[in-house]
Predict the structure.
Amino acid sequence: MVEFPLPDHVSPTNYFTYELGYMQNPAYSQELQGFDIQVLDSASPDTVLYSNDEVSVQVKAGLITDQDLHTESDQVAAQTKFTFKFTVSNPVPAGGYININFPLSNFEVPGSERDSRLSVNGGLWFTPS
């Protein structure tokens, strides 16, 4: 909990701004709920004058930038290799993975087992189960 003292008298039209720095957001996209703002009576600190416990904020996923997609062959029905290149704006936590969804159902995409047709930075890659 963080407390801020108020001036002697507060008008109902006063607008308050309080900034708390050095807070670290979660490592993944989510709505942060559970904030509770209360105005208390200084003469009786257990007396809540105003309260709002429906305050929330949406933490959004980072951006993928500098993306590039290249294919070795643009011939119809040819076997080819796709190369995806991109940069992420947020750190990826340990155990994280990249998910690439292909737009057409007629692609034969390697399955969930370790497959030498897939590589990341020259190493083998597998789809998490």
